[in-house]
Amino acid sequence: MKYCSNCGAEVAWTIPEGEDRHRFFCEQCKVIHYTNPRVVAGAIPVQDGKILLCRRAIEPRHGKWTLPAGYLENGESVEDCARRESLEEACAIMDNLQPYSLLNISYINQVYMIYRAHLINDDYRPGIESLEVQLFSPNALPWEDLAFPVIRKVLEMYCHDLRTEHFPFREINILPGNKEAS
After folding, report:
1. What is the mean pLDDT of each run of 10 residues along the chain (182 residues)?
2. How many C-beta atoms lie closer than 10 Å to residue 5's C-beta?
3. Which of 37, 57, 89, 112 has an alpha carbon 20 to 30 Å from 24's alpha carbon atom?
4. pTM of the entire structure?
5. Peptide bond before 60: cis, by omega within 30 degrees of 0?
């Protein structure tokens, strides 16, 4: 950030009075510009035991497989975001959304909220951000072709939980190098 969105003056990267960390601060109008993590919401849409994945038509990771997910919009609930992203990316309609995992990726300023869900329509198809969509059985997931390490982690947890038929909610901190914090 170079200029204040409030008054147009140049901003400083400093620790403003009363704060405990560096922020963009406008010394002219005294506005502190907070930058906060991006929230990503998505789902594991399941139909007849198979998981719906989308092959990305956009960067980053064009051509790789992922769960339908995307950035939370202002004025939108996290669950509504997961529903919207599934509809946009896969024309998928879901019900029975259950919170499944919260993944903190603080080193890239992202928080993922993933739901388990039932895919209820058979006419799913690629949306504008997808090249194709496909149902995969858990033993046929395209592990080497997944777009993001966080999606791999979620799918690993889900496949493990399928074996026990117990799906606990988990909060996980992902560290650089895709390691999990203890």
Report:
1. 96 96 96 94 98 97 98 98 98 98 96 98 97 98 97 97 97 84 54
2. 11
3. 112
4. 0.89
5. yes
